Helix-turn-helix transcriptional regulator
Amino acid sequence: MDRARFADYLRTRRGARQPEEVGLPRGARRRRTRGLRREEVARLSDISVDYYTRLEQPRGPQPSVSVLGALSRTLGLTLDERDHLYRLAGHPAPPRSRDADVVQAGMMRIFDALPDAAVQVVTQLGETLMQTDLSAALVGDESVYTGRSRSLHYRWFTDLASRRLYVPEDRAAQSRLIVADLLASYTRDGAESRVGAVVRSLLEESPEFADLWQEHPVAGPYCGPVRLSHPRVGRLELHCQRLIDPDQSQQLVVYTAAPGTESHEKMRLLSVVGGQDVYAAV
């Protein structure tokens, strides 16, 4: 625990929190304390004034997770500020709640602005929450999947049909990227998260996944060139861009082809064909 920095951080955040923000009157007399008083923070956090004072001096014990949670709420910390408080106190940051089935507002606005592009909103497990008609024509209608199979990461290792769109020579690299993506989410969210449940299932069901998992592959969020073998228009050379939501629970995935190329013309053709079931034609 970094007691000095922890104490300074508490003092700084207490000074930034105003009494009106926690339902306290400012009072007729001028407050000599900028922000909340120590006794106010202690009372609102259900700890003793002496205990809180020792945390700020700094000469107190390492605070428990429950105390840190109470202080975070009292001080109105954002998730990033809360995580920083936990780390200064020598505790790992708590897992963040991720409502994976609700599209974030920012993602929704961008999605609505790109109705004619191959765009989809996906979770950290590769679950497609929304996709445009061109996206459905390109990769198939992914709203048909239920349960664990909603996750492309899961299907990739348990249903070989999910690989058919990728050219054979790229499939091994894609497997490794998916495992690296799951590992990053698993490290961030922990074994008891939804990601952890998928990882446990894949370790039991897929020897290929288990072998790659033991290698601890690490990859960045970059999504580069993608080569697909589409059942209706043939080979496509595409670029993939990803916009990651600030809480890292969702991504906006956009597939594009360079103007003037054969792939660009094929994408235009797909926009006319519409969202028929890609896999049914394979």
Remarks:
- Residues 105-281 form a domain with the Beta-Lactamase fold (CATH 3.30.450.180).
- The two ends are 58 Å apart (CA to CA).
- The first helix runs from residue 3 to 16.
- The beta strands are 118-123, 128-131, 225-230, 234-244, 250-256.
